[in-house]
Design brief:
Strands 2, 3, 5, 6, 7, 8, 9 and 19 form an 8-stranded antiparallel sheet that branches. This protein has 14 helices and 30 strands. Helix 10 (453-467) crosses helix 12 (544-556). By secondary structure, it is of the alpha+beta class.
Length: 629
């Protein structure tokens, strides 16, 4: 009997230990939105076990596949659209097999399910607009476009300790959020969250950036610390990034800026000024203290700025932290900033928001519209441009610059933007109107995720060979300036019509095996130690036979999927080479992957202002000169 009781007691203790361990590892789930406690819900010990965000469980994937097959049909129902509207869907229906059956690429299923919801909402809005236009009793007027600038006066209070400010059309590279406030209260801790839109049936939105300032430390340290993280309903909290960095962790760079400024947490001897509400008193002598950008009771001006690789924070003019975008959590998804905790908020100002131009006020509108495709005439070149839905300004910059080359305006060269749907309905409505106005957008039947850009490459090949017939097909980005005249001259000089890959060829590259890398590739995705030759993504050209083979193979489901689109093109061409195609790899050193140099053929990472400047120099100087110093 004693042994039996002892066994029961031992078993009970073991159960309590297991239960306690589970609770420690997985605290009771609290609603992100409704929780009245403002403290970071991130497990403060997570940073010790550094690892990539957890992948979705296989059973969940099976469920999602079934759901995707059901909802994908909504994307391809024939709609009551005009011939003009149908032009934006020239490749849409030809991608049906690809988006229905390709479950290899990350986020493919989610992107299609989200697109189905977005497409139904957009089509409902389009139908309503048409009905209203036919109803004389309904006063129709253009809705306010995506604003370029917002301030706290547009914010609404969510509870006694927090504010939120919505971004109608998300964020884009160059967008900034400036928060002016004073940490106060008992602890002076506060948090800034950039959140997205929750999917139907999901109570809480994804957190694209969680920025938690703890002035009195946490369970790991007693010193002030900044904690950055992400959260999704599928993966919970990701891996914490702390500033100051743990002693055993090396700082990474994001957009060439340190993940954590080395000043933060270090002892500094400073001759300083003590500020009060009434006056500023100079204090002589030096005082040693650890530098931290936020201080209880003192005014701070903090600015979050969206870069090409991540989000940077500056405080009072000093760079403090950088946070790299994580997979599926990209800036265009952000729909709101939420600020809560012990902070007296004085002002919130956002600028550089994505906004579309009002076509009613564009004097040169006709010159910006796509030239009609010449019937029964083969194009010299088709150019497909990667773009995301809310990159309105970038597309307008392209239309006003290198799309004004004579070869483009005459129809010798055709240019189209390839754009996935957005999760935000206002963005999709603006995009739809833009597509109808300029006739140069090809909508994609999926929501844009970086891991799916290879699908766009396939769509470009489909358009360049099945919708039009082009001798050469080119892929580029909406932040790349393309000298169309020089591309055509290069094609004539090379004088190769089959098996051509022209671009900045990389013949000796290796897969990134670090999970922290944006280009991480696991051995399961690519087991070999090197890639076949490929051309960097800012711009490359393939001959029509290569594009035709890719289009044909995707229809038959025989195309190997790979998430890095420029490398994927190299892989596909390598497979063709193994089957007998003689491939000509033509390296073009004047394609600059990062920035601009005089004499360029393609200059990458050019904002709208730089694009306009480059075009002005070409028109005035008749030379490819870069802008700036």
């Amino acid at each position: 009997m004693k042994k039996w009781y002892g066994g029961v007691l031992t078993t009970s203790l073991l159960m309590f230990l297991v239960l306690g361990y589970c609770v420690m590892r997985k605290p009771v789930k609290e609603s992100y939105v409704t929780s009245s406690v403002y403290f970071n819900m991130t497990n403060p010990l997570e940073w010790i076990n550094a690892m990539a965000p957890p992948a979705a469980h296989q059973p969940e994937k099976i469920t999602q596949v079934i759901s995707a097959e059901i909802v994908v049909s909504d994307l391809f129902i024939k709609r009551n659209l005009s011939a003009q509207e149908q032009q934006s869907l020239s490749t849409w229906y030809q991608l049906k097999r690809l988006v229905t059956h390709d479950q290899v690429l990350p986020n493919a299923i989610d992107a299609v399910k989200e697109a189905s919801i977005a497409w139904n909402n957009l089509m409902t809005a389009v139908e309503r607009e048409k009905l209203d236009a036919n109803d004389s009793s309904v006063k129709t007027g253009k809705q306010k476009q995506c604003p370029h600038f917002l301030s706290k006066t547009n914010a609404t209070e969510i509870d006694a300790s927090g504010f939120k400010l919505r971004f109608p059309c998300g964020l884009t590279q160059g967008s900034s959020i400036t928060i002016i406030g004073i940490p106060n209260g008992l602890l002076g801790n506060f948090r800034i969250d950039l959140t997205g839109e929750p999917l139907p049936g999901e109570p809480d939105p994804p957190v694209i950036l969680h920025y938690n300032v703890r002035l009195h430390g946490d369970k790991i340290t007693e010193d002030p610390v900044i904690v950055q993280n992400t959260w999704t309903i599928a993966h919970d909290w990701g891996e914490e990034e702390r500033c100051p960095l743990p002693s055993d962790e090396k700082s990474k760079k994001v957009d060439e800026l340190e993940q954590c400024n080395e000043m933060v947490g270090n002892v500094m001897a400073t001759r300083h000024v003590i500020a009060t509400n009434k006056s500023s008193l100079a204090q002589d002598g030096s005082k040693s203290r650890k530098y931290f950008p936020f201080k209880q009771g003192y005014l701070s001006v903090a600015t979050l700025r969206v870069g090409s690789e991540g989000i940077q924070m500056t405080v009072d003019g000093k760079h403090i932290t950088s946070f790299a975008f994580r997979e599926t959590l990209e800036p265009w998804l952000v729909s709101e900033v939420r600020i809560s905790g012990d902070i007296k908020l004085i002002s919130v100002v956002t600028s550089g928001l994505p906004t579309s131009e009002d076509s009613d006020h564009i004097s040169d509108l006709e010159a910006l519209k796509a030239a009609p495709l010449p019937p029964r005439k083969r194009l010299d070149l088709f150019v497909g441009v990667f773009s995301t839905a809310n990159n309105f300004k970038r597309r307008m910059a392209v239309r006003r610059t290198w799309m004004q080359y004579d070869a483009v305006r005459s129809g010798q060269v055709a240019v189209r933007f390839f754009v996935g749907l957005h999760k935000n309905q206002m963005v999709n409505e603006e995009l739809w109107n833009e597509a109808r106005t300029y006739m140069d957008i090809q909508l994609m039947p999926f929501v844009d995720y970086y891991s799916l850009i290879a699908w766009k490459t396939i769509a470009i090949c489909v358009f360049g060979t099945d919708v039009v017939s082009a001798k050469f097909v080119m892929k580029t980005d909406d932040d790349a300036f393309v000298r169309v005249d020089e591309i055509l001259s290069s094609m004539q000089r090379i004088n190769v019509t089959r098996g051509l890959l022209y671009g900045l060829i990389n013949s000796d590259s290796h897969p990134h095996r670090s999970p922290d890398s944006k280009w991480f590739i696991s051995p399961e995705e690519w087991p070999e130690e090197t890639y076949p030759p490929w051309a960097h993504g800012p711009g490359y050209v393939v001959s029509s036979d290569i594009a035709k083979t890719i289009s044909s193979k995707q229809r038959k489901g025989r195309l190997k999927m790979f998430k890095l689109e420029d490398v994927a093109m190299g892989i596909w061409i390598s497979e063709m080479n193994k089957k007998g195609l003689e491939v000509k790899y033509e390296k073009e050193e004047r394609i600059f992957n990062e920035g601009c140099r005089d004499g360029y053929v393609i200059a990458h990472y050019q904002g709208p202002r730089e694009m306009l400047c480059l075009w002005q120099k070409i028109e005035e100087k008749k030379r490819a000169l870069c802008c700036g110093e």
